[in-house]
User: Fold this.
Amino acid sequence: MASYGFVVSTTGLTIARKGLTCGRPQSRAVRKAPIRMSSSGDSEVLEGPFKGNFGDWYLTKGDVIGVRDYRFALLGAAVSAAIAVGITLGVEKPPLPVVDALYLVANGFLGLSLWKIHIYMKPMHNLLKALWGAGTAGAIAALFLTGEGLALGTYDQTLWMLATGWTFVAMTGLFFKEGICFNRQEAWGLMVLTPILTGGHFLNLLPAQVERGGLGVFAAMFLFFAYRKFEQPATDDLGDKSVFDHLEQQKAA
Assistant:
């Protein structure tokens, strides 16, 4: 039977299962004078100690850089996707090579965010990266093999979504992680809207006007989601570093 543990702090509730916790900041231990591991570099301690499930941990410059990279990658994906959607919806004859290029740029930023995201469950993290990789390979194949480019070819020849759609499965997983960890309404909305739009088009269930409207809502919500990430403290996306250390120790044992 699976065992669960609960850690309650002024910053939120952490649910741990088999030593795996969600990415919420842990309750802070009594503040001590910060320990400077070095005068510069990624190991420089910026804040702490924080009380984790498996001991105290410190926020370092390298941690902040990693979280920054994750958030800017999300923002890059959101901006690129929004521009592509704006061109598609706002231009009578959109320049398809530009739309294809923007899709690939957004896809690249999404991949970076999946590499930088902090997920304690390593198999789940690896699965999301593998799904993104499969979708990226499918997108490159569609770009050259559909005869219509990536965006139009996938839209017209929906079977190609079986190759490209894995990217959106990975994206849905990212939104699910953000929703369950931080209960952000825009994350939940994106988690629901993404499979509705992709699955609805694949199964030919959505009228064209509904698809266009949904695409606009998705772009706006994705931008809002990425923007709001910058309002969170770095410790939110970092989570409990002591869990990572514990898992590494278990792996080495």
In short: The two ends are 23 Å apart (CA to CA). DSSP finds ten helices and five strands in the chain. Strands lie at 4-9, 12-17, 20-21, 45-52, 55-60.
